[in-house]
TrEMBL record:
It is found in: Cytoplasm. This is SsrA-binding protein. Its main location: cytoplasm. Required for rescue of stalled ribosomes mediated by trans-translation. Binds to transfer-messenger RNA (tmRNA), required for stable association of tmRNA with ribosomes. tmRNA and SmpB together mimic tRNA shape, replacing the anticodon stem-loop with SmpB. tmRNA is encoded by the ssrA gene; the 2 termini fold to resemble tRNA(Ala) and it encodes a 'tag peptide', a short internal open reading frame. During trans-translation Ala-aminoacylated tmRNA acts like a tRNA, entering the A-site of stalled ribosomes, displacing the stalled mRNA. HAMAP family: SmpB. The keyword Secreted does not apply. It comes from the Bacteria. The keyword DNA damage does not apply. SUPFAM superfamilies: Small protein B (SmpB) (SSF74982). Belongs to the SmpB family. Keywords: Cytoplasm, RNA-binding.
Length: 155
């Protein structure tokens, strides 16, 4: 019997795909406490306005909000605390090289479970200008119209 692979996203940063050009993505583990994991499994994590920061050879996620676990009482932590990402040193150096260039930053795209562990899909991104966003919306609308026309044609 084969195992079914499912990496269902527990939290997504949809706004990031609209606001940034995604250059490269990497999967990273995240250092959490037990009540944070329980809260994430309930879907109470928010990646909006969060970003990655490299400090002294380690990567941290800032402004990621994980709501306190209801039954966690004294074990709950600050919802906006910095959380360390678990990556190999060579991966950290590679990402550091990207972010040292002007205009590039690290943004988490999604949180998901993989083999019972919470993983982060971290992306190296470059910001879009307003006209780039408008072009992307126009392109998306044109593609949707083409698909609609094709569907009507083959009915």
């Amino acid at each position: 019997m084969t195992k079914k692979k499912s990496n269902k996203a527990l939290a997504e940063n949809r706004k990031a795909r609209h606001d940034y050009f995604i250059e490269e993505t990497v999967e990273a583990g995240i250092e959490l406490v037990g009540t944070e994991v329980k809260s994430i499994r309930e879907g109470k994590a928010n990646l909006k306005d969060s970003y990655g920061e490299i400090r002294s050879g380690e990567i941290f996620i800032r402004n990621m909000h994980i709501s306190p676990y209801e039954k966690g009482n004294i074990f709950n932590r600050n919802p906006l605390r910095d959380r360390r990402l678990l990556l190999h040193k060579r991966e950290i150096m590679k990402l550091s090289g990207y972010t040292s260039q002007r205009g590039y930053t690290l943004v988490p795209l999604s949180l998901y479970l993989k083999h019972g562990r919470v993983k982060v899909n971290l992306a190296v991104v470059k910001g879009k200008k307003n006209y780039d966003k408008r072009d992307a919306l126009l392109e998306k609308a044109a593609k949707r119209d083409m698909e609609r026309q094709m569907k009507q044609k083959y009915r």
